[in-house]
């Protein structure tokens, strides 16, 4: 039995609220149980220097945790003067995952920046971020289409993410903080709507994992991500 | 007539929601119209080095805007590697204002850090922050009292803040962003429950203001702050 | 009786020495008693990026204290790698105050940077800086006029600043360090030659101040600033 | 046929040279074809603050590329004033991988820092780093044993790493730079001597990968890592 | 004939004014012609960590130029967030030179920090700094003696510095800015009262210099430094 | 007798290995005994902003020590976020010395950056760096000639460097670390093939040096540098 009464292969309650704030072209509050992340998508009519003049766009992400989103307060990264290695790792992961959803040529010379700010953290903030950001990104691309800034929809398909892990030698889906900090192995998986992999990042925290455990975790992740994509589709009214 | 149909001396709709997030000892979402700030209070059982061994506590504040809380996206301060002068100015103002509410001796050797994070910005973020942070601070001090970490309530009284300004030669209460960016003069006022001043910060943006205008603005501020203190009291169930 | 035998409404001895150093377009040493600030004005024939192509100029200020200008040595900001919040607050205040003196359109696409470096600090360094910087700025604008770089004098009028405070419940003009660090309330006021306000920044240090005390302080400030403007005029030979 | 005539499941020529420099407690030059990384292990008789007094040790890693280890020169991170996100990601990966080899309790209150500095980069620098660093770490732990600083060997077993990828829909072992920058998917795998997984990090660069491809890549990695562990054992004279 | 009518072996007018500011334990304004440097010495009753518990003191120096001390304004190092390589080189040179004057054992566990801030720069700021700082340091050590914080005078003897150079193939003493920026070779020399060398730093700017030229420059420097030491002695009333 | 059995005027064994790594236009491993420095030269077809449009090139250098190149590990400068004063001093010295070898006009609008990375440090890393970098620079200039990017050889002649010092009152050539850290005086000398001086940097570490000692050291340096230039010529096959 899990700490929060879930079955081993059960997601936490997932909510995806669009238009959560007023100004961003896409603004989504995503909740995986107590984990809450605000994902906003901002359009800028230009591209980073390394892409200038190539007739394509860019999608990038930034990530941050409010200092007291967590059980004990962490330092504010802006005050400390730099982003931690963990923060950079996560925002690079989110950016790569989102770019896999988009035909950058069709995006034209536009940049969409996704900000994922964690309001409350109970494990799985990076996977919730990707899942919510995918929806915010679609909203922003639709703004470009509606305003006739681009002609063709750059969307290649939905992407969602979930964490899986081995806890007391059993595979669990969608770890909460308590499970995450005590599990043997933690695997974050990003997949497309079509059931293919974008990212697989597994780390043995306490003891190494076997090929069999790897397979069990990947299967759980596939199941969870199909459910998450259904939630995204519902939120989008598809 | 004001841009949003308010009377000259009318506040925007003000909401103060306690226990907005789960982990902080005080957690308040404060809304002044479309301006929304999350104020969390975190207790740490120690004091900064300059206060060590003096048998007193400390209250400090940090402030940040989510990159897309505003009409157009601003750089993330954590990514840029430093807090702007404006941010530092505001967090110093919030800290000073909150310390005026507290008997630091009675706080014992505890530090309470208030994080004010702007979720959505439509003018008046610093005054909303102070007004909401005051409530979060009280919640955190009550946690210390309930857990018997301190014996006597350190609270000296409520503090609230509002902006006033001169727009087309008339004094206005509680400026929204549109008004704020077009006004001649902008005055932020912090006052106590007892009707005395903690901070008065007036800046002529476009043309200097007269002594008469200064008086008009201070009177509007007094009126507005009394209403805000009533809102704080309602939220606290006093 | 004041610590230095002054009357409550009496300024310290004020000296304004022009052409204090050789290379700057304006160079003023301003002394308020033992407080000594070197204010230099430097002309650059360009404007910051955000003003490019708008046919107007810019005036900005930087502020610093020599490490041992104070009673005990403070860290050198250049060595520590960043300017303190206090420094940034002060230089933003000086910049705004000086821009109120100038018609930026008439300044053409020129930037004037005022450096206020505190040689010796005995309270009131920000108000002395503004008072001295105003003169250095005029000298620099006259260089532009003489060299025919601009056609019309951009000067709108003089600006000066003074601190006032409440000490043992009495209002005092132009606080020295000893008074400043023990006063209940500290108010910095910037005014124009015409007797109007540019900035009013009041902070209750120890206990809140009443509306009556606010009025007393503003009146003292008005008196003091008129005297300072007279000193500026004398220094300029007007 | 591969760019460098290797079979799909063939490693590049691997060399592991111990005692490459004089002063470090462990010093290994590891070569995967043209990729050359110098891995040094340094012992310090203390632990980071978060471990003080817990009677255990710590193993950590830092990573850097010489500016011209690559085909075109990159900026020196020390001159730019910060480590890139990529660098931080890699050094965190190396550190986690090496800690999986060590019983930190048996290490006592000692810290071993592994520096992985890339002399020449032709793809796979992170996997070469882990493979070489494992040997340098063992040499350093043996110094502690020989000097009787610790009583029991903290080594739990060898760890090695390799990259695999999908290039033109075929799975390849140990990608060189040319392959790495053109492959569809890149997977870095870290395994123990016992054939279990420590880290699996797969990224779809160009198009998503299927579960079948994932399996193919994991099998190639298992094969390659067994060969690398054999090379480590040879180098160690086991 | 030199630009300012001096003979080849003639110093500029040198003035050393003690007690230039009020608070520092030593405060000297040193002038070499138009070059003006304020040198203050501050005592702290502790030593840097690397000297703790060794029963000796420390002398260190910091150097800065006011942004408009020069012909055109330079960036403020505090605003840019770091000290230039040139600044660090100079402050390391000043620190080493001053430590050569002092028996650090006799200084006890005290640190004396010398701040050299350039008010006006016309070449030779580092040599003027050393020459003035030596006097400020002596004044500070005398404060320690008078207050009975130390028993024995730590002074080993005076130290002074001068620049020499080759300009149009002739050796010149004490270069002004104009000469300095056009000379072939620039040599800074620091010597003791006893006529021995502390530092010799020669740089061929435009063309290499011969052994003969090196000798000519060293002789000029010896002459100049003897005159500077005489100036220091006069200032000290010896 | 010296610590390593050398005569007072004897260099350590010097080796200069060209083409040490594959990608750089010049790549030299220079060894002075146990001191080993990798010097790579990288060509970029542009110049720094301050030289744009002047029809000339630029030569610059960067320097770094691998963290465990030394007897005990030093912090990684990239991790600490800044280069030390010592590092900056050395890279400025290397850059100036190399520019003395080159006719920058003939180099065209190209920049050659020399990276000197210390693999193993046993004293004299800056002089070894200059000696090796000179060869790497020539190799890079020859690449420009061969590829017909420039028409005329920019080389003015070879440059090499050596350290000399006074140890127990005797002058020594080419100090190893042990000698360097115990000597009274340390002098680094850079000379041209023609026997003229580029840089002379002498520092009294423990006690001042006399004019006679200065002369002895300069003579030893001249002898050593002639031998080093011979080694460079051999390496270049001249």
From TrEMBL, chains A, B, C, D, E, F:
CDD domains: RNase_PH_bact. The keyword Nucleotidyltransferase applies. PROSITE patterns: RIBONUCLEASE_PH (PS01277). Keywords: Nucleotidyltransferase, RNA-binding, rRNA processing, Transferase, tRNA processing, tRNA-binding. Gene3D superfamilies: GHMP Kinase, N-terminal domain. Phosphate binds at residues 86, 124-126. It comes from the Bacteria. Residues 10-140, 157-224 form the Exoribonuclease phosphorolytic domain. Its EC number is 2.7.7.56. One of its GO terms (biological process) is tRNA processing. InterPro entries: ExoRNase_PH_dom1, ExoRNase_PH_dom2, ExoRNase_PH_dom2_sf, PNPase/RNase_PH_dom_sf, Ribosomal_Su5_D2-typ_SF, RNase_PH, RNase_PH_bac-type, RNase_PH_CS. It catalyses: tRNA(n+1) + phosphate = tRNA(n) + a ribonucleoside 5'-diphosphate. Pfam families: RNase_PH, RNase_PH_C. One of its GO terms (molecular function) is tRNA nucleotidyltransferase activity. HAMAP family: RNase_PH. PANTHER family: EXOSOME COMPLEX COMPONENT (PTHR11953), EXOSOME COMPLEX COMPONENT RRP41 (PTHR11953:SF0). NCBIfam families: RNasePH. Phosphorolytic 3'-5' exoribonuclease that plays an important role in tRNA 3'-end maturation. Removes nucleotide residues following the 3'-CCA terminus of tRNAs; can also add nucleotides to the ends of RNA molecules by using nucleoside diphosphates as substrates, but this may not be physiologically important. Probably plays a role in initiation of 16S rRNA degradation (leading to ribosome degradation) during starvation. Belongs to the RNase PH family. Homohexameric ring arranged as a trimer of dimers. This is Ribonuclease PH. The lineage of its organism: Bacteria, Pseudomonadati, Pseudomonadota, Gammaproteobacteria, Moraxellales.
